[in-house]
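Got a spare moment? Tell me how you read both lines of this record:
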Amino acid sequence: MKTSLAFLCLGACIGVTAFAQQKARFGPDLPQNRMAASCGPAGIDYKVKLDRSQHGPVPPQAGKALVYFFHEAGIPGESLLAYPTTKYGLDGNWVGADHGDSWFAVAVDPGEHHICTLLQTSVFQPRLELAQFIAEPGKSYYFRTRLVLSGSVELLELDPIGSDEGGYLYSEFPMATATAKK
């Protein structure tokens, strides 16, 4: 009986801890200390303009690597007013945002980099995804986000993709230019 009670208490403690960790990562109060390593400062939101005349690739800068960020909305049509903006952090600074099917690229120094992507929304629960990569000069790296909605579940996915998929996406999607809201 005592053993059963001990396992029941241990299971409850593990469940509460797991729930608290999940809430900390996905809940409305994403702690800044959990985001600081990759994301930018809290409280910065972006307005995104899409330029349908701009398609990649972006010319490389000497001694730098290029990182392409794509967001694939999966929603046909021009009106994505209620669709959330996705913002991207790199090594503790916000580097841009996109909206709907769109992309942008940033130049980075060689070395290890940490990526954060976060939904900018008041409709969905905040979603945060993290990744890392090691950049080499002259090379390009491609990352795609997708918001997956299924019933009551909302998931933000961040995945590295290959240059073939990246080339297709920047040829099809408009380029996003983000400016911080005042």
In short: Residues 1-30 form one domain. The helical segments are 2-26, 32-35, 163-172.
